[in-house]
Amino acid sequence: MHFAVLIFASVATMTTFALDNGLMRTPPMGWLAWERFRCDIDCTNDPKNCISENLFIDMADRLYEDGWKELGYVYVNIDDCWASMDRDKDGRLQADPNRFPGGINKLARYMHDRGLKLGIYGDMGTHTCGGYPGTTVDKIDIDAQTFADWEVDMLKLDGCYSNAVEQELGYPLMSKALNATGRPIGYSCSWPAYQGGLPPKVNYTQLGQICNLWRNYGDIQDSWSSVLSIADWFFENQDILAPAAGPGRWNDPDMLVIGDFGLSMEQSRSQMALWAIMAAPLFMSNDLRTISSGARSILQNKMIISINQDPLGIQGRRILKEKSGIEVFWRPLSNNASALVFFSRRNDMPYRYQTSLSKLNYTTGSYKVTDVYTDQTDVLKDSTEFVVSVNPTEYTCNPVEVFLLTCCLRTVRTF
Ligand SMILES: *[C@@H]1O[C@H](CO)[C@@H](O)[C@H](O)[C@H]1NC(C)=O
Ligand SMILES: *[C@@H]1O[C@H](CO)[C@@H](O)[C@H](O)[C@H]1NC(C)=O
Ligand SMILES: *[C@@H]1O[C@H](CO)[C@@H](O)[C@H](O)[C@H]1NC(C)=O
Ligand SMILES: *[C@@H]1O[C@H](CO)[C@@H](O)[C@H](O)[C@H]1NC(C)=O
Fold first, then answer.
1. Cβ pair 39, 130 in contact under 8 A
2. Average pLDDT of the residues in 66-76
3. Choice from 173, 205, 240 to test ligand 2 binding pocket (greatest atom count within 8 A of CB)
4. Number of domains in the chain
């Protein structure tokens, strides 16, 4: 269903106004607990899966030993339900002592010893979404300092239990407070998701100045309909969202659910391809201890990752929506390369979509094309008509193709 092409593209000089902490010049990659493990705090009956020190250590071991870290998946991120219900006597947040006996600082050290990073979760409001202590405006400085003292590398700041006025005050203040700690801490803001994700309520210029990434839209769930509804919203609003992204500042369509229960292999390839085109952060939320080899090979596909991580950091767009149900997505990449994804909304059978690079507005020349999911390469002239067999999304058989092209045979890209 997709066919990503790595191609020639003229590249405009970009002015960036990113948060000045030097972090996340390409979309961050790693693992995040929420979608797969939620708020499971029952360590008595479910010790392997409950939100505890052991879960994050298990995932860190898998990232470190199973080839994920080398590909860029370095963040191990805690989500909600890690905290004790009470702050300590000095007013600081503290981890639940039974589930995190070593404290967050010990986990951070465990990550750093392995070249990994630790992310934590907080909430701009009276409570987190799961009902744990939140960070009200008066608690911002102390919480930022606590996270820095623990040597945390990233903060996701949710927005439950606060109003628009408190959010407008709190999100920029947390950015300042993190900076004031002197520790580089990647900052993920859920703010726009609480304000509908669109201007005039959301100011993307400001977000790019205070946050490294931000959740624009609702939470992802373990289903294709959820993945598709998120992708649809992002591409329907691409004229607003794409210019907001760049090195150090990313739109976040939420976690990768590849390797869980809801997606077929084909749909898994689709999520990976669309997230790569969107320059989305790649946070897996799955069980790396038991992941299938099929899901792993999609998540570890070097070419897809290199598209996602392209240093220009330009977010791709949907360029065609055919009546036939075929859609084409495009992302310009560095070194005159680009990626194309062919996507089908059909539910009958593989559709033979005929096109040429010139029909997709590529300039005259020969292009080296690589199918990202099969590694097959070909050379196409801009005028050559070719057929992409795009499988229907709902099929579980074989509906994805991804290609990569380089321009003119002069700029063959190596991966
Ligand atoms: C804090 O902000 C200043 C100015 O924007 C920047 O130079 C510095 O690197 C930042 N420090 C951290 C730790 O984020
Ligand atoms: C958005 O934020 C930027 C940077 O903070 C500011 O200069 C601009 O005036 C804001 N735009 C609107 C419409 O409020
Ligand atoms: C990209 O293409 C342009 C126009 O063909 C060419 O001048 C330039 O050298 C190419 N850049 C690279 C990095 O290959
Ligand atoms: C190609 O360019 C033309 C003229 O600018 C535009 O109307 C058309 O939508 C473009 N097609 C694609 C697939 O981008």
1. yes
2. 98
3. 205
4. 2
Q: What is the pLDDT of residues 140-170, one digit of tens each?
A: 999 999 999 999 999 999 999 999 999 999 9
Phi, psi angles (nearest 5°) of residue 215:
-80, 120
Peptide bond just before 332 cis, omega within 30 deg: no
Catalytically active residues are: 158, 219
CA distances from 386 to 5, 354, 356, 382 (A): 13, 6, 6, 10
Q: What is the pTM of this model?
A: 0.93
Q: Say if ligand 4 is within 6 A of residue 319 CB.
A: yes
- Domain end marker among 284, 308, 332: 308
Give distance in angstroms: CA of 24 to centre of ligand 1. 14
Q: Is the CB of 363 under 6 A from ligand 4?
A: no
Instruction: Show which of 257, 274, 308 is a domain's final residue.
Output: 308
Asked if 122 contacts 159 with a C-beta cutoff of 8 angstroms, the reply is no
What residues make up the domain containing 405? 317-414
